[in-house]
Amino acid sequence: MSPQPVDSLKGFAVTFRQLFRKPITQQYPEEKRAVYPRFRGRHRLWLHENGLEKCVGCSLCAAACPADCIRVVAAENTSDNRVSAGERYARIYEINMSRCIFCGYCELACPFDAITLGNEFEISEYSRDDLIYTKDMLLAEPLKKVPVASAEEFDTPIPYYKAHS
Ligand code: SF4
Ligand code: SF4
Predict the structure, then answer these.
(1) How far is the CA of 123 from the centre of ligand 1 (A)?
(2) How far is the CA of 61 from the centre of ligand 1 (A)?
(3) Strands 115-117 and 70-76, how do they pair?
(4) Closest ligand to 102 CA?
(5) Residue 151: CB within 6 Å of ligand 1?
(6) What is the Cα–Cα distance from 21 to 13, expressed in whole angstroms?
């Protein structure tokens, strides 16, 4: 076993080496680390190019949801009030984000790609009521509050499939 002063010097050497390395600290929330492309974050509902909603209120997403956090109430489209491209539309579409486990089953179950999970992860709120996202909230563009760091600053390893595709 080496004498204690030698161990201390070895410890100082480790600290000293760090002085010449680039810091990896990021100034969150001003700088945000880019997430992996397949990261599942905040949901989004989508429209067709003609402005009609893709969601037809079929509730397949709600049936697939293991956390039982999607509520869909459908209504019939009429000639005076056409909301979606199908026979019916979602009069009410809500997701309780406080229960969601971001598994992505709703996205997989949807036959019309009406709902997807995006990359936004800043969805914390002070009240649980504010975590119930309504249809209007889900149709809206997510708010980007601060700049997102460029992918070059992404210092975690590039996924294998991405580096080799
Ligand atoms: S991501 Fe999973 S838990 Fe969340 S709403 Fe979709 S199916 Fe439900
Ligand atoms: S989001 Fe898709 S699966 Fe869910 S109710 Fe709308 S059309 Fe059906």
Answers:
(1) 15
(2) 8
(3) unpaired
(4) 1
(5) no
(6) 13
Q: What is the largest CA-CA distance in the chain?
A: 88
Rounded Cα–Cα distance for residues 21 and 28 (Å): 20
Nearest alpha carbon, ligand 2 atom 2: 110
Q: How crowded is the C-beta side of 165, counted as CA atoms within 13 Å?
A: 5
Q: Is the dihedral of CA 144, 147, 150, 156 positive or negative?
A: negative
- pTM, whole model, 2 decimals? 0.77
Q: What is the pLDDT of residue 160?
A: 56
Mapping DSSP to helix (H, G, I), strand (E, B) and coil, where does residue 76 land? strand
Least confident of 16-20, 81-85, 106-110: 16-20
- In angstroms, rounded to a whole number, what is the distance separating the alpha carbons of residues 33 and 155? 9
Ligand 1, pocket-test mutation among 70, 97, 117, 121, most atoms within 8 A of CB:
70
> Which numbered atom of ligand 1 lies nearest the CA of 115?
6
The structure tokens listed for 15 are 């600290």
Q: Hey, what domains does the chain have and what are their CATH numbers?
A: 31-163 (3.30.70.3270)
